[in-house]
Amino acid sequence: MNLDKSIWENSDTATAYRRNQIRSAGFLIGLAVLLAVAALLSLRAGSYDTPVLELVKGVFGQASDSKINLVVRNNRLPRICTAIVAGAGLGITGCVLQAVLRNPLASSSTLGVSQGASFGAAFAIIVLQMGAAAGLGTVAIPLCAFAGSVSVALVILGLSRFRQISPEGIVLSGVAISAMFTGGTTLMQYFANEIQLNTLVFWTFGSLGNTSWGDVGRMAAVVLCSGVYFVWKRWDFNALLSGEETAVSLGINVRRLTLVNMLLCCLTASVIVSYIGLINFIGLAAPHAVRLAVGNNHVYLLPGSAIAGAALLLLGDLVARMAISPVILPIGAITSFLGGPLFLYLLFKGGKRSVDG
Question: How far apart are alpha carbons 249 and 69 in whole angstroms?
Answer without folding.
Answer: 58
